[in-house]
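Dear colleague,

Thank you for sharing your sequence with our group. We've completed the structure prediction you requested, and as agreed, I am returning the results in plain text so they can be pasted directly into your records. Please verify that the sequence below matches your submission; if there's any discrepancy, let me know and we will rerun it promptly.
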Amino acid sequence: MKKYLPILFLLILIMPALAQNQFDHGYTVQTVYVIRVAQHANGYLVRYVKTSDGQPATTFIPHSWFRTVDADGNPRANQNEQSQLFWGRGDTFPRLSVLSRDGQVVSVRLYLSSNLNDFTWATFNNNSAFAAEFSRMEENPTFEF
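Please find the predicted structure tokens below.
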């Protein structure tokens, strides 16, 4: 029994490294605290806190990312087809999680307060001002972390 103890100890050390490589497919998830959210005709304008330096940043998340079919009723083949929108209350709302692989955005999970009177909700004075930003994010989604 004593001669198997070093082998068992070695296996215990090696197993976590093997398991990590088995499931690591290059995906990373960044979750950030949302400061403000404003609903736009084309999506959501989201102000959040960057994890790198604690400074605020702004992103635009188009409504189309949360749809499962296109305008013609066909299933979406878009890279963002798995994006999800969650409504709720509590300490974990609002927040934003971005799943990326090899630097490309795969999906977004946006957690919003279901209470529209919450201090995190904002309103637009000019709803057409940011239409170009939503189009840009549709083509090339980028986030600062």
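Summary note from our side: Residues 18-23 have pLDDT under 50 and may be disordered.

Kind regards,
the structure core
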